[in-house]
Amino acid sequence: MAAVVASFHFEGADQGTSIVDSSGKTWSITGAPVTQTQETWVGTSSGYFPGTGYLTHASHPDFQFGTGDFTIRGLVRCTDSTATVRHMFGNSFAAGGNSGYYLYWQQGVITFGYQTADLVYHQVNSAALGVLSIYNRYYIEITRADGVLTMRVNDTITASLDDVSGNVIGRDAPVYLGYSTSAYGSPFKGYMDEFQVIKGAAIHVTFAAALAGLPDSLAPDGPIVSASLQLTVIAAAMASASLTLHASIVPPGILAGTQSVCIGSGAAAIWTPVVRVAGTDVASQTISEIRVEAEENASRISEIVLRPPAGSTMYLPEWSGKTLTIDVADAATGSPRWPMRLFSGVVDTPTLDLASRTLSLSATNDLQGRCLAMTQAALTALIGGYYSAAVFDAAADGWAYAQDRLSTRTASIDISPQGALRVTPWEPKAVADIALDESLIYDGSLSISLSPRSALTNAVDVNFGYRFPRVKAEGHGVSFEAVNMTNFAQYNLESRAFLQRAQVEAAISAAGGTLMDIVYTPLPTVDVPVGTGFWSPGPYDDQLCMGFTATVSFDFAATIEEQHQIRVAAQNSIDVVGLRLEAMSGALVGEYPDLTAAETGIKLYKAAVTSIPPADVAATVLDKTTAAEVTLTPETNRDAANAAMETLIAIAKAKIWSSHRGNTITLTVPLMPAIDVDKTVSVAADGVTAKGKVRRVVHIMRPETGEAYSEVAIALCSVAGVGITHDETATAAPSGTVAGQTDLSLSPTVVFNSGPTEDNAITITFPAVAEAERNGTAIILPSTFDAPLVEDVFTVTIGS
Amino acid sequence: MTRVLKLGSFSLQTLAALDINQSYEPLGGEFIPRTINGTGLKQMTWQRTRIVTSGQGWIPDGLDSIDTSAQLVLACIKPRAVRAVLATRQATLPAARRSDAGHTPWGVATLSDGRTVRTTATIVGNVATLAAVAGVVAYDALYLPQFTVWAMRPTDALTRGDGIYRWDLVCEEV
């Protein structure tokens, strides 16, 4: 396990003789090294070595690095300009190939070295920086990582040896801070602070970090000893599939975008592309520029040019479909390390130029093809959003389906450099992933383009028509009195006919009504004086009546038409630039079985001719026209209509937001692989302050010239200014009409020809169903929705 | 001893190179973009060397017999220096250097008065240890580089008036 095995902060009183190792080790002090406050770098004091004193620790495994990684680091200022070798740290070095090591200063050159058993000295020094001054402090850092010994002074790599793998460094002997028992040198003379030894890890920190104080333990972002990675595999519709897992260790700063292998930290950035075709490294064949382009809602594309070895035979068609991966890696050690993926895809178009003997490969990560191969369920899970078969083509394939869903979201889709499908919201993150300022943006590359007013849309009128049937029932009350007990005698003297009950019911049926209930007024059951005689009850009186009161139902189907006039708008934008209106429309027709047959079925059921209830029937309420909803198909019912309207509202909102993010900042920076279309980038340079989502990035590598840069386009949503809130009305379908009741305005009439010479027929006439009840005019239903916008940080200050 | 230029198995005759010039030019990506605040961010990629050699003499050079379609080892005649550690008088030399007789590494010691004196070098592996010289302020270990190169087809010329044969050879490290 890697650990800080010695840590001296030199905190103490002025001329204090207590020098503490924060790792817990106890060192013996020889001579008079002290803590002092006259010259302090970190904390309240630093260490001073007079040139005759030093600290000693007995032999300890912590200082015997073996063949593993280690770090020796600290702040020093040597005050001796003579040729005297002044040892800063040593492991009892003595010539003889025993792997004891030394770190010393001599005439402005710092050297670290050791001698292996074959008596070969392995050394790194600071000579590349020239003669260091005795008046300056320096941050020294010696590391061995993966067999490469490196010296840094103030962040600059001054020397490295890559042939030290397998060499044992450190011997079973005491160690010295401020000395080395070397026959060649003397104890250190000068100042020292934050001096540390780390066994098991090569840790590089900047000079600035050292001045802030070095930690006594390795933080969690130290070397990864072990790690677990949980993978989620999304099944793809393929006959056969294979999975290849690539893993590489990359410093957190490079992953996060705060560092880049193409941006040196105090030293030149030494980088190299790693290009593989079908898994084979083709870097030695790659010539000219390597280009990777990524853009929202588009496939990532790449172009490389190969010069195959002379004499090689190739079958050109087989190049199409070969996998292509492009990484950019650090090459400071001579071998690629910390590779960052820029592109994963397949060759789309190979082009052979016989004159120059070069093979150009255009490759893509085939965003459309990936979506095409996915099921609608998988795309729905990935993208979300709204969907309606009444708005979109239900037969749309994967890519069209994905675009349909995306049109309802304020987000974009792409495939990451590693090959993962992802959806990224347009709204930038609260804290930018990557900050770009004047120290990174190429001079002359920063430019702004604003979206013209003509390209803006801040209101969308959505007209949605929904036509569907309902069933209705008119409940008519019919009352008729042919005779009563007051005029019964006269009625008989006039030889008028009594109503036959069957006649009444037949008349109702003939009028088209359905008899719901009827109460007859019976004839008298006793003798009634009529003139000079009596009227007496007869055996057929139960078939007659003096009058009746009935409830009659007229059932019919009606077509309802709703016209939803929905306005989706961003009012604050309208207030600034005026109304910029677009229109959208949609329609849906509710599907129902034959309405005429339905009417008949209701009539038969209400007439008790059949006991099979119809699917939908309206209640019969006296003196009312009562409507009832019907069971439409799932594709055309109210839920489907609501889904269609919500989809259209969502599309309108996305359309408004999309038109407002047409403002673009473009700039060029040294290639930063972390910059991608899923990132939020902030800009603070040349008076421009902005934060937005990356819309497009092009990574360009030119190994021949050393150039590696990224051209970045950042989308900015801006119209009314930061701080202005554009409220949103939640996307929900506006309410439609409901099946209600209306009053019947007209009453039926009854005519009974009861006279002795008349036909004794009864005619009941019901008012006709108003046309407005059957097929009413379109019902206008207006509604409004506020469309959201999030104003991105975007200010420009004109300099003097 | 006169240094002899060799290319593969071909050795250039001294009479063909009575006057010889050789230069090393760095090849490779090296670029310094400037940012808005003027910061230079240096970027580098691979590095190779182009060796341009020209000479003249009394006899034709014979370089046209070289197979320029093959990679060849160019043993150079222009030395390079590595500053040695003063205390140990040691310097680590590149492995790609000449070790043929008369072309092995040697040392140069710089005295405090600016004079330089030649000193011998003992080679163990790639480490050169220079013989001590009194009054030295700096030691440099010198060596003759060797490169694996692609040789471009050489050019040659004759000036009849002065009877001088001239030639040019350009090589680039593979």
Characterise this structure:
The complex is a heterodimer of chains A (800) and B (174). With 800 residues, chain A is mostly beta strands. Chain A has eleven helices and 45 strands. In chain A, the strands form eight sheets. In chain A, strands 17, 18, 19, 20, 21, 22, 23, 26, 27, 37, 38, 39, 40 and 45 form a 14-stranded mixed beta sheet that branches. In chain A, strands 1, 3, 4, 6, 11, 12, 13 and 16 form an eight-stranded antiparallel beta sheet that branches. In chain A, strands 2, 5, 7, 8, 9, 10, 14 and 15 form an eight-stranded mixed beta sheet that branches. Chain A is elongated, with a radius of gyration of 46 Å. Chain B is mainly β and 174 residues long. Chain B contains no helices and 15 strands. In chain B, the strands form three sheets. In chain B, strands 1, 2, 3, 4, 5, 13, 14 and 15 form an eight-stranded antiparallel beta sheet that branches. In chain B, strands 6-12-8-9 form a four-stranded antiparallel beta sheet, with no helix packed on it. Chain B has a three-stranded antiparallel beta sheet with strand order 7-11-10, with no helix packed on it. The model of chain B has no long low-confidence stretch (mean pLDDT 93). The chains are: A mainly beta (800), B mainly beta (174). The interface between A and B is large, with 44 and 27 residues. β17 (269-277) of chain A pairs parallel with β4 of chain B.
